[in-house]
Amino acid sequence: MGSLSAIPQHIAIIMDGNGRWAKQRGKERYEGHIAGVDSVRAVVRAAARNGVKWLTLYAFSTENWGRPAAEVDAIMELFCKTVMSEAEELCSQGVRVVIMGERSRFSTKVREMIDHIERSTAEATRLTLVLAFNYSSRSEITLAVRDIARKVSLGEIRYEDIDEEVISAHLMTRSMPDPDLIIRTSGECRLSNFLLWQASYAEFYFPEVLWPDFDEAQFDKALEVYAQRDRRYGVVADEE
Ligand code: IPE
Ligand code: IPE
Ligand code: MG
Q1: Considering 95, 103, 145, 156, which has the largest number of Cβ atoms within 10 A of its Cβ?
Q2: Protein residues within 5 Å, CB atom, of ion ligand 3
Q3: Do 97 and 121 form a contact (C-beta atoms < 8 A)?
Q4: Ligand nearest to the CA of 20
Q5: Residue 115 C-alpha to ligand 2 middle, in angstroms?
Q6: What pTM was computed for the model?
Q7: pLDDT confidence of 202, banded at 50, 70, 90?
């Protein structure tokens, strides 16, 4: 059994259910995304308070470009607004922000906001907040394979030296530990192209609550659930 002192080093969250939250209230989907920002604030606070060192939030998948243009535009706009309004507060809380995803498809404004938030929080050391924004795991792995193949063809890596460490070192998560706990809100039980390689031995938690209703108490509950899990990594403990 785990113990209550078992705080995950890295928690990754698939923030799902904003659209349903809005529809239940007769609102437009984008209003659910706006409400979801409060939950982001709450989990960042709770993660820092509990001594979690890495918090990764799935904010926009590469597949999410397929949504109606008005919703995509609203998400991009919300990202820019949130960066502007939160940068100072995040910095003072000791939160370093890193954006993980393919950047070339973003508008100049979004790219400027990414630079702004990364630069202004770069020195913070209490918690690293990774926002997966235009991220998908399969495209991340594809880019890594391409990069490794290029290095092999240039003689920089010998093909027989390609091991799990080399692959990990070519992913967008190269400087991060694997997630210990993956939470997906809204009751859906799937990864939707998130951290497929890194999730090998993660614990999963699927609360029914929609993302805008996820708060600090829900976060603490997730930590309690995690602390009860028995992580065996495929091995059997010595018999007592
Ligand atoms: C998650 O909420 C936020 C993003 C994917 C950007 P959804 O927008 O997926 O909300 P539901 O799942 O449709 O309720
Ligand atoms: C996953 O949620 C992506 C994010 C939370 C950013 P989706 O709502 O896009 O995933 P599906 O469509 O339910 O699999
Ligand atoms: Mg969804």
Answers
A1: 95
A2: 16
A3: yes
A4: 1
A5: 25
A6: 0.97
A7: very high
Residue 114 has pLDDT above 80, yes or no: yes
Give the long-range contacts of residues 69-76, CB within 8 A, separation 24 or more.
Answer: 70/30, 71/29, 71/30, 74/30, 74/33, 75/30, 75/33, 76/106, 76/107, 76/110
The residues spanned by each domain of the chain are 4-136+178-226
Ligand 3 center–CA 14 separation, angstroms:
9
Q: How many residues does the chain have?
A: 240
Contact 87, 44 (CB under 8 A): no
Distance 210 CA to ligand 3 centre (A): 10
Location of structure tokens 């609360």? 207
Average pLDDT, the chain: 96
List residues with catalytic annotation: 16, 64
- CA-188 nearest atom, ligand 2: 13
Look at the domain 4-136+178-226 and name its fold.
Answer: Undecaprenyl pyrophosphate synthetase (3.40.1180)
